[in-house]
Design brief:
heterodimer; A: 157 residues; alpha+beta; Glutaredoxin; 4 strands; B: alpha+beta; 2 domains; four-stranded antiparallel sheet; globular; binds iron/sulfur cluster; binds FE2/S2 (inorganic) cluster
């Protein structure tokens, strides 16, 4: 985010401290995450303590403090999914994307995450791509899922 | 606007007491010597109602309810009971929860003993750091010190109090949070001419007294106060001890 881009967002909200949330949303929408430098600049420009901004930034799940890819891949590593081989799937993804859970690929396309049980244990092992659940995953299937093989992706099991 | 205080009367455990209308119940009761255990309340900062230990039963217009007293504004005609069976039971439960969260805290252990709680039925958090998320450190740093070095971070089971980005850049190492923390989980170390607030990982050089040479407060803190209060630059040349003796 450039200084000018931030300035535009702030102007749009009339430099109102009360619009902090809306401003954060705009920043997140532009960069897909909240860069530290931008939050620090916001604190300066709006005369709001950084603590207050950081509080909001970490409270709402809609915000991320680390760069996000265009697509979010979440591997469930809860007990049921673990038993059914979540680790293999995670390994496959880590190798394919060359990132660790919590990280984003250098081309900013994918963010890999893990989660503890999504309450759909019957579908274990479970992978979620951009909010869509894909059950009974296996290593090969998850790769075609990434490549956008719609036939596999839409099969909700 | 009139600033005249309106005094009202109400009852605590059968005793008629007087307090300023709108004042919080806990401090009013403490002033009269009633013992209500509390952890997240401190007179220097605004009430937060987080620990729930200060529960009492309040009857207002014939309706009784259990409420935290630190953030309950008093009103005429209230009937307050500080130690009913309901209150005791709720308090014991809270103390058990707190024991599981802060197993090393002497203060909480003592409070639990006083309430008749010997052990907790909840799983004690492994390598607990004893923080009960009372938020006193955050409030004192923001409201009293004005440094705004700390904030609540995350939510759910990842909730904690910490400096933004884990970077204590705004902390002046004044030690106010160390002082108010009810579970003693913020430690302060002074070694040579350095002071460290261990929990926030903040280490600052201390200013030596121009007269006796002893380091007495972080340079960063002194400059910060001088700037905010617009004091003369050499205001803190002497440590408090030498300052007193010099003045004679
Ligand atoms: S020591 Fe630092 S964190 Fe604690 S109250 Fe002082 S400025 Fe705030
Ligand atoms: S560190 Fe101490 S004062 Fe701060 S929230 Fe935890 S228990 Fe309360
Ligand atoms: S363990 Fe994966 S959905 Fe429950
Ligand atoms: S002292 Fe009232 S809730 Fe903690």
């Amino acid at each position: 985010m450039t200084g000018a881009q931030l300035e535009n967002i702030l102007k749009k909200h009339d430099y109102q401290k009360s619009s902090l949330l809306a401003i954060l949303q705009d920043v997140q929408a532009l960069d897909n995450y909240l860069p530290r430098k931008t939050l620090e600049a916001m604190s300066q420009r709006l005369q709001v303590p950084l603590t207050q901004i950081y509080y909001l930034a970490t409270f709402y799940r809609a915000f991320s403090l680390t760069p996000r890819g265009d697509h979010l891949v979440t591997v469930c590593t809860g007990t049921a999914c673990h038993v059914k081989g979540a680790a293999t799937i995670l390994n496959t993804l880590e190798r394919e994307l060359a990132v660790q859970p919590g990280e984003t690929t250098s081309d900013k396309k994918y963010t890999l995450e893990t989660v503890n049980c999504l309450g759909s244990c019957a579908l274990a092992p479970l992978v979620v791509l951009d909010g869509h659940y894909h059950g009974r995953m296996v290593g090969t299937k998850v790769l075609s899922l990434l490549k956008g093989d719609k036939k596999d992706a839409s099969k909700k099991s | 606007m009139s600033h005249k205080k309106e005094l009202i009367k109400f009852q605590i455990d059968g005793l008629t007491v007087e307090a300023e209308k709108g004042q919080m119940l806990l401090p009013a009761a403490l002033e009269y010597g009633f013992e209500i255990p509390h952890l997240c309340y401190h007179e220097a900062v605004s009430p937060y109602g987080a620990c729930r230990l200060c529960l009492v039963e309040v009857t207002k217009r014939g309706r009784t309810m259990m409420t935290t007293s630190c953030n309950y504004p008093v009103d005429a005609g209230l009937d307050v009971a500080t130690n009913t069976e309901n209150v005791q039971r709720a308090r014991q439960m809270i103390l058990e929860l707190l024991l599981a969260r802060a197993p090393h805290s002497e203060k909480i252990r003592a409070m639990a003993r006083d309430a008749g709680v010997e052990e907790t039925r909840f799983r004690v958090i492994e390598d607990a750091d004893d923080c009960i998320l009372c938020g006193l450190c955050e409030r004192v740093c923001r409201e009293v010190v004005g440094a705004n070095a700390l904030t609540f971070v995350n939510r759910g089971d990842r909730r904690e109090v910490a400096p933004p980005f884990g970077d204590p850049i705004a902390c002046i190492a004044c030690g106010a949070c160390v002082y108010v923390c009810p579970t003693d989980c913020i430690k302060m170390k002074e070694e040579g001419d350095e002071r460290t607030i261990v929990r926030w990982k903040r280490t600052l050089k201390m200013q030596p007294c121009q007269s006796c040479g002893k380091p007495f407060a972080p340079v960063f803190q002194l400059n910060w106060i001088i700037e905010r209060a617009q004091l003369p630059k050499d205001f803190y040349a002497l440590c408090p001890v030498c300052r007193k003796t010099k003045k004679g």
